[in-house]
Design goal:
Layout (H helix, E strand, L loop, with lengths): L2 H10 L2 E16 L5 E20 L5 E3 L12 H13 L5 E6 L10 H16 L6 H9 L5 H6 L3 E4 L4 E4 L6 E6 L6 H6 L12 H5 L8 H7 L1 H10 L7 E2 L6 E5 L2 H11 L4 E8 L3 H8 L3
Parallel strand pairs: 3-4
Antiparallel strand pairs: 1-2, 2-4, 2-5, 2-10, 5-6, 7-9, 7-10, 8-9
Helix pairs in contact: 2-3, 3-4, 8-9
Amino acid sequence: MSATEIINQAWLEKWPAPAKLNLMLRIIGRRNDGYHLLQTVFQLLDLCDWLKFHPRDDNIICLKKPLDGVPEATDLTVRAAKLLQENSGYQQGVSIEIEKNLPMGGGLGGGSSDAATTLLVLNKLWGLNFSIRSLMALGLQLGADVPVFIYGFSAWAEGVGEELKKIIIPEQWVVIIKPNCQVNTGEIFSHQDLTRDSKTIKMADFLAGQQQNDCLSVVCKLNQSVEQALIALSEFSSKARLTGTGACVFAQFDCYESAGKAYNALKPEWQVYLSRGMNQSLLAKKLALFEN
């Protein structure tokens, strides 16, 4: 296909915005501006929101249908598109259609991933040719988790979560429980009981099993349902963990049968997801198919 045919086809596609897990989260300090210094490991999942983009003849950025409870002006996809438009000088607008599958306030990165997909796909559709690093820098203005979704690979992360290095992690099956609560990340990071002085570790230490989450005790203290979800999931795995600041908890399984057994047993009582870890995101794989 010609370059024009590729772009025309890309406008017709649905684009994935994958979830992520934090397989480990250590808080090692705090910057003067209040942001916390972290060490964490991101793994991407095949569980996704899906986005479609519809061209407009004017320069308006809008949603096809606003999400319940989220003002359109504050929606991260709208903010991402406007940020890209402002930094590129692109003159036309877009209408964004979102199929929302990832839970809000769950720690799976749904809003951040939607923003990253918006930046990456509109960069392609609008013919802007921003580099991945440039898009990551723009994404960081929207949130600390946005760059890893633009990066598109499982990553060892430091700084506030934006300093990324590729890491290869077994692509295991994952069962995720979303408790009936939303965790306020700001509340967790400002809590007086939060550990902020964990020692730094190396990637090899994580791979050898050092996979603590420093937010766990505070999250469970403030949200009893998170602790209950961990107890429920621990019946099927000795390594049930919290992702990020939650509210979601997860466990990894070596085979589909074990994961499926846990999923089916938990499904009657909990909002539960069955997914699989991926070292390269579905979005990165799909974008590669549309390279000229």
